[in-house]
Recover the amino acids of this structure.
């Protein structure tokens, strides 16, 4: 009996994928990609937007985040103000008809001394690809959880309209899991 | 986004007006041929001045709407030539049609799934521009003074309002620069009584305005109706009533009252856009 149980356990260990090597699908159900733009001048009036459609994958191995890749449907951009949503979709900003997708592909992920994770990758926006790095709080116990807040310079991607009215720096927040 | 800043007014309207006035004055000093080119050259110089002062687009086209300045310059070169002495109406019509079709062919985007399809948009906007340019050309050649550039300034301004309501502030600023340029030409035309500085202006103004409305329409996610975009380039053709037919004999205030017709058409375009915009929440900055 004991011999049979040992054989079954050995077979299971061989055939069943290791629990700590997994790809996590990134969808609007478990992930949120948000941005905050502010007006230039004395009255910043921050405006928050998000993307409602995107898909991607995060690879986790041995309890560590190994890679992240996300494709974003820019036409799914939404804010609480209809006029703002329409304007952000226009060629003044995201130009979604001409550039219907944006994407991020990680190139390296490393731990930092402060216990965080530094993610470096290529962000493609308005057809322009730039390397960006940002810190993220990542945990993998009980499923992947990630939270990253970082600024990007929209003009680096050719989003040059109205720099005298809308700040060049846009604050991004990416949340995966709870 | 705040609606208007000081730099919008200074570089986007006042500077184009000053540039256009200077160009119209200098070129208008020449005799017949100079006057034929004055309005077209002034419109192009003033509008492009605003375009580049406000950094509205690159010099090297990368996107469909980046061709707008090139369409304007080309039309400003062709428009006055089409009005040259000895050019018959039978030659002028196909020339205006050809340039209008070519302009719309470069301005209509090549995106997959464009709705309506690309060929139908080129046909619609090309026909509209060609017919409007022909009718306005006939009116502009017959009406001297400030009436034509004033009507064009008003139509450009209304076009800018429609584009702003459609969520395209950059394209609105382009027509804002055209508004300033037309106002500058009107000022010079008012000072130089008897000179017709707008003989060749019809083609460049029509293609600039129709082109701006077209790129605004295809890039808009608002509920602004198609009629608002189409009415703006058509409106000034009503000036023809002041040039030919029984009403052309009207004098004084009655003659100026005919300017109310293009203004009413432009007002209708803006009113339709405002009604559509009213459903997008509270008015004001966003």
């Amino acid at each position: 009996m004991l011999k049979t149980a040992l054989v079954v356990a050995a077979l299971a260990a061989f055939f069943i994928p290791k629990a700590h090597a997994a790809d996590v699908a990134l969808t609007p159900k478990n992930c949120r990609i948000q941005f905050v733009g502010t007006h230039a001048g004395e009255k910043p009036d921050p405006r928050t937007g998000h993307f409602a459609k995107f898909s991607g994958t995060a690879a986790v191995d041995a309890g560590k985040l190994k890679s992240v890749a996300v494709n974003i449907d820019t036409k799914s951009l939404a804010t609480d103000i209809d006029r703002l949503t329409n304007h952000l979709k226009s060629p003044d900003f995201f130009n979604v008809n001409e550039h219907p997708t944006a994407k991020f592909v990680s190139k390296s992920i490393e731990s930092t001394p402060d216990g965080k994770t530094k993610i470096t990758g290529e962000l493609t926006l308005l057809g322009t690809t730039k390397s960006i790095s940002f810190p993220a709080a990542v945990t993998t116990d009980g499923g992947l959880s990630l939270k990253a807040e970082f600024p990007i310079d929209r003009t680096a991607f050719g989003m040059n309209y109205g720099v005298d009215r809308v700040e060049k720096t846009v604050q991004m927040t990416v949340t995966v899991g709870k | 986004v705040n609606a208007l800043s000081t730099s919008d007014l200074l570089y986007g309207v006042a500077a184009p007006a000053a540039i256009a006035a200077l160009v119209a004055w200098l070129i208008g000093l020449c005799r017949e041929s100079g006057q034929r080119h004055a309005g077209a050259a002034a419109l192009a110089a003033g509008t492009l001045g605003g375009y580049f002062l406000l950094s509205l687009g690159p010099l090297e086209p990368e996107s469909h709407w980046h061709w707008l300045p090139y369409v304007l310059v080309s039309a400003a070169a062709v428009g006055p030539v089409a009005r040259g002495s000895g050019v018959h109406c039978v030659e002028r019509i196909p020339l205006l049609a050809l340039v209008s079709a070519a302009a719309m062919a470069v301005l209509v985007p090549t995106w997959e799934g464009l709705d309506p399809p690309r060929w139908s948009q080129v046909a619609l906007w090309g026909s509209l521009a060609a017919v409007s340019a022909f009718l306005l050309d006939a009116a502009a050649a017959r009406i001297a003074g400030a009436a034509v550039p004033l009507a064009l300034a008003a139509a450009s301004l209304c076009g800018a309002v429609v584009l702003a309501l459609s969520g395209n502030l950059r394209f609105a600023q382009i027509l804002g620069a055209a508004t300033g340029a037309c106002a500058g030409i009107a000022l010079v035309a008012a000072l130089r009584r008897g000179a017709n500085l707008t003989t060749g202006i019809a083609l460049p103004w029509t293609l600039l305005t129709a082109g701006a409305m077209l790129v605004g329409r295809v890039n808009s996610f608002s509920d602004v109706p198609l009629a608002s975009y189409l009415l703006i380039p058509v409106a000034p053709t009503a000036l023809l009533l002041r040039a030919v037919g029984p009403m052309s004999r009207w004098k004084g205030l009655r003659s100026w009252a005919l300017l109310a017709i293009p203004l009413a058409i432009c007002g209708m375009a803006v009113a339709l856009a405002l009604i559509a915009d009213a459903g997008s929440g509270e008015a004001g900055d966003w």
